[in-house]
Amino acid sequence: MLNAFRTDTKLSSRETLVLNVLPFILFFAAYFVLTYVVHWLALPEANQAVQWLSAQGIDSPNPRLLPLPSDIWQSFLSSLKPDSAGHVQLTEDVCATLRRFTIGLSISTLFAIPLGLFTLFPKWREFWVPILGWFDKVQALLLWPILLLFLGLDEAPKIAIVIVGVLPGIALEIARLVELVKKDQIYKAQTLGATEMEVVWHVVYRQIFPLIIAAIAATFKAAWGYVIAAEMSVASCGIGYRIFLAKRLMDMPTILAYVIVAMLIMFAADLLFGWWRRSYRWANQ
Amino acid sequence: MNNHIIKIQNCTVSYPSAKNGQRVTVLNDINLQLQKGELLALVGTSGCGKSTILSAILGSQFPTKGAVFIDNKEVTRVTRDCGLVPQNYSLFTNNTMLENAIAGPILEGTSLQERILFTPIVFLADLFKAQKILKLIRYSRIRDEALANAKEILRRCGLDPEKDGGKYPYELSGGMRQRTAIAQSLMMRPKILLLDEPFSGLDEKTRQEMLDLIYEQWKRYNITVVFVTHHVHDAVALGTRIVCLSQHWLDESGNPGQGAKIVIDKKLSGGAILPSEFVKSEEFTLLTESIRSRTIDKDNPLPIASFELTHPDAFKTKEQNNAQ
Predict the structure, then answer these.
(1) Final residue of a structural domain among B189, B209, B243
(2) What is the pLDDT along chain B (324 residues), one digit of tens a residue?
(3) Which domain holds residue B160?
(4) How many domains does chain B have?
(5) Are residues A46 and A96 in the same domain?
(6) Is there a single domain that holds both residue A109 and residue A39?
(7) Could you tell me which residues come within 8 angstroms of residue A276 by beta carbon, excluding any fewer than 6 positions away?
(8) Where are the beta strands (DSSP E) in chain B?
(9) CB nearest to B92's CB, from A190, A207, A280
(10) Do both B170 and B230 map to the same domain?
């Protein structure tokens, strides 16, 4: 046990794998045990146990709140079945959420990159950094009603909330990365004949590009959260909309199935961007 | 006007102190003229303003008073006139050794739009060995010409472009990185080469090899070199002229002055390897001691005075010494 608090511990790949997987196994095992106990308590033969719990002042938990893993799986499979019009509910919901997320994040990135890169120029930096810093502190969800009033109830506000929420953060992170570029490299490029714009492109952008990928990946969670929250408020399809609908129907298996799908999508996106960033081997040193 | 390639005229650099807002003088009324082809070694202790002079010549630091001229034109920004090899490795980390070496000709010969447009096309044409397409693209022709030139210069700098050309800076040793940085600057045939403590962090053997390399390139290209160091031995070995900066000096009335001044300005032979007779001589001891006392000993500031060097070996070239 004491070894767990040593900084110089060397781990084999097997130990690393075990330590990585163990928390997942423990979490799911705990969930399985808990759900089976709760469901057993709902059976007539568990009457004595329920009475004993009541005597202790503990209410018998509602089994609908903790669905069995098999129920979650069934719910997942049923959401993959096409309806009478041939629409697959899960696919349509995931595509709608992904589309809003991707468009919002792409527009944010497209504007944040030049905004951040141009902070290399002092006037540009002094003009943009304070206002971006201020907007970065504003919680985007607070602006949601304003976005609805200005942009209507269609797709635009759901994309706009992602832009408002993540653009300042990405731009500020790029501005911070720009500051890390050594001045000597900029002077060196200028002695090699680079113009100001070539310095931005050749020296700054290309060298910090892997870190920009990491900066974008760091905003995934926030952007994903904004889209889902917006869908819970105003939408006719999407992961957030479906979870909100399932909540009204107390359909816990569907909620958990969608939560797992949303989590897996984020996990995959994070892996993809991590792999993309690491593919620039010179940046990993 | 005159044949001075660099002219530093009454150059004073000062800035407000972060502590109390009072102005701190870094350089105090520096006057220095360099003729074409000189190899100036600028010595002094850390923080005495050597790099500030270099920055003023480069155009990245503007004097508070006075001006710096290159070829009689006032320096107002960083230009192609100077090549720079800074103290910290300044190679572009995302480029290989060869890509770093050709960065200059590519930046100079092609436009940004051209590079953005043609880089993927040239990459694909390279991949499929489509020589006809490559010959049609101007960017590709400039790149190939630069590559051939870069390989030649990298070889002259003691590197093996065939073996190491594809390596990124993190895969190169400290010496190889500095050689690449020198080759990168030489590719542009600058009027002036500025070297800011280029040997810091290098071992003794590499250091000597680098001294030889700079000497050889200086001879070959006949460029003006300004070489900043705090090692007196390197300065005396390499320079055709040594200039010592010190913040510890007395003015005409005997009061300690503010900011760095040139306390020794002496012509030398320059030759990368000091003749052993000279190193052993009293003259050398006197010179190095004089430099040390004038640059380091802040408790005993000395009046600004000329220092006469008379030892015959000190004025011989490396070739003359080798011939003996």
Answers:
(1) B189
(2) 567 899 999 999 888 877 777 888 888 888 899 999 899 989 877 778 888 999 999 999 999 999 999 999 999 999 889 999 988 768 999 999 999 999 999 998 888 888 888 878 878 887 777 777 777 788 888 888 999 999 999 998 889 999 999 999 999 988 899 889 999 999 998 999 999 988 877 788 888 888 888 888 888 888 999 999 877 778 888 888 888 887 766 666 766 677 777 777 777 766 656 656 666 666 667 666 666 665 555 555 454 444 444 444 444 445 555 565
(3) 93-189
(4) 2
(5) no
(6) no
(7) A213
(8) 4-16, 23-35, 39-43, 65-70, 73-74, 82-85, 192-196, 224-229, 241-246, 249-250, 261-267, 302-303
(9) A207
(10) no
Chain B partners within 8 Å of A187 (Cβ)? 58, 60, 78, 84, 86
**Yes or no, beta carbons of B90 and A184 under 8 Å apart:** yes
* Chain B residues near any Cβ of chain A (below 8 Å): 58, 60, 77-80, 82-84, 86-88, 90, 92-94, 103-104, 107-108, 112, 116, 168-170, 181, 184-185, 188, 190
Same domain, yes or no, for B176 and B286? no
Within the 254-283 window of chain A, which residues sit less than 8 Å (CB to CB) from chain B?
A: 280-283
Contact between residue A258 and residue A231 where contact means Cβ atoms under 8 Å apart: no
Q: Which of A182, A192, A207 sits opposite B94 (nearest CB)?
A: A207
Of A183, A191, A280, the CB nearest to B82: A191
Give the per-residue SS3 of B133-166.
Answer: HHHHCHHHHHHHHHHHHHHHHHHHCCCCHHHHCC
Domain membership of residue B87 (yes or no) is no
| Cβ atoms < 10 Å from Cβ of A256 | 20
Instruction: Tokens for B221, please give them.
Output: 């290209």
Instruction: Judge if B38 and B126 occupy the same domain.
Output: no
In a domain, B211, yes or no: yes
Contact B88 A182 (CB under 8 A): yes
Q: Do residue A24 and residue A135 come from a single domain?
A: no
A198 touches chain B (CB under 8 A): yes
Q: Is A181 on the interface with B (CB under 8 A)?
A: no
Q: Where do we find the tokens 């979650």?
A: A72
Instruction: For residue range A11-33, list pLDDT tens digits in order.
Output: 899 999 999 999 999 999 999 99
Q: Is the residue at A205 inside a domain? A: yes
Provide, as residue numbers in chain B, all residues whose Cβ is less than 8 Å from the Cβ of A207: 92-94
One domain for residues B51 and B140: no
Tell me which residue in B80, B86, B112 faces A184 most closely, judged by beta carbons: B86
Residue A4 forms part of a structural domain: no
